[in-house]
Amino acid sequence: MHPSLLLLLLSLLILLPFSAASPPPFQRYPLPSARRSTIPPQTQIEVTRPLPFDALTPACTLPLFNHTFAHTSGLPPSAANYSAPLNCTWSNAVLHFSAAANGTQVDRIAAVWLAGAELLRTSTPESTPDGVSWSFTKDVTRFSALLSRKNLSLSVMLENTVDEFYTGAFDVNITFLFYNIKNSSIHNRRSLNSSPRKIIRNQRRQSAAINASLELDQIPADLIIPVSAAGEEGYWFKIQTGNDAVYQGIQIPNNTYRAVIEVFVSAHGDDEFWYTNPPDFYIESNGLNITLGHGVYREVLVTLDDNVVGSVLPFPVIYTGGINPLFWDPIVAIGAFNLPSYEIELTPFLGILLDDKKHYFGFGVADAISFWLVDANLHLWLDDGPVKVQAGPIKYKNPNNCVERESSFAQLNGKFETEGERKTEFSGWVYSSAGNLTTSVTTKLEFENEINYKSNGTIVKVEHEVKVKKQIQISLPSSGTVASFSVESKYPLELKTTSVAGSGPDNYLVSTELEVSYQEEKKIDHFQSKLTNKQECSGWMFVHGEDVLSGAGATSQTYTVKDSLGCYSRKVSADEGAVVSDNENFLCSAGVVSGSSA
Known about the structure:
signal; 11-stranded antiparallel beta sheet; globular; 5-stranded mixed beta sheet; Peptide N-acetyl-beta-D-glucosaminyl asparaginase amidase A N-terminal domain-containing protein; about 5% helix; mainly beta
């Protein structure tokens, strides 16, 4: 990722009190080295729930990738040959990512692909001459169809710049851990062998077909097809404007009985903090010399043959240089190491796809400015029985969205409100060895954003919230609903920034308060779960010209998940670059979600 803005609000705060001849906006710069030199380098962490099999010994371990990313700007991804481990029976797979850097460096975006399918999107911490290190794991069992193969290319993209100022290089290691989970209380999955195997046994076909429509991790797909770019500059598509549209033609096997597209997306450059962007008319009216703008509404659209079949309102992942870089040392922002992917059920559209022809999957980002990185994986479940798979549509509700905007401003003071909503309803039938199953998918997306500028633009407050409701039902003509899945998620963000002019030219004291969270409630038949992940941050920066000279940041995070398999909570606080408290609990308290594993 080329150096983007240090933070959108900081650029506005610097520019707003001035005319169009103001100095250029701040760019992203590393942590002040004077601050870090007094603190021993620490391991950076992203707070999340440990994987259920972390305490188990892997059935086999595959160290695969070791590379130093120095000056890699403009170069293709680095690659290694992947083959599944021999003589290893496994049911679950984990990607272990570890890295370190020495020298001054800003955060960079990175991704890992296997045969062109994205396994992981991540970002790096900022680094000073004192160095930085970090590691994390990701459950990649959903990619079993790829991980069980041999002679595939594992590609890693980390576009880094090394020069007289940015001196840091990133040493990256990737290892795959394979586990054989026999205890169904940990996870109800079948064992896989490294050799090609049949995913679905005939005697289990109907049960598997039904349960497969619940979550990708329960019964992984039989085939994964990447929907991605050529790979010379990474396998992601780069979207520069709201008018950009990218496509890939794919013909799927005619024995497919279920399809899901998994979308990876990240925002960069002028749109990195899209949820704080002012409208263009505000910028033009005040003669501001900034490239940010186009308002706050962004929606990632997924199309099939130019028809919208789903969309994503992205979670606002904050990279480690964002808002105030001192917030994210050593606790990084939610999703910074493991950016979320988004799943869209395409089974109702198999009536279109199962015609032995190529169909075009496309992506766009509504109202985007430069730039967004988007790609996807198409997960397909195949029927290996004697029955010819047939499919047809039942219902397609045109997924029109509604966006309303209100504004009121006088010079640099003003208030801007944006609300958006999209509701989709799709259903279709699939006749396979499992019977005649109807899959119905209902999704509702809601968006609210309000930006207030006060005190001649030196005080900026942003309130941003997205709500997502999704429900999937599978039914048989004879017995009605046989399986269901529902999830409700919400991710609010509140941000307040105040700037005060310093005694000298181009000197500013900027104080910031931030609260961001991800909340999710999920139901899969009798299985229920509830997740709350919340961060609260406060701090200040003293800025001269384009340099952050000094500052402070404090972050507290509460992560709580309760489900039918147990509970986990962790509360961590950091101040001045050091963890001051860290409490972890695996015990359930009152109000635990009840139920049994599906």
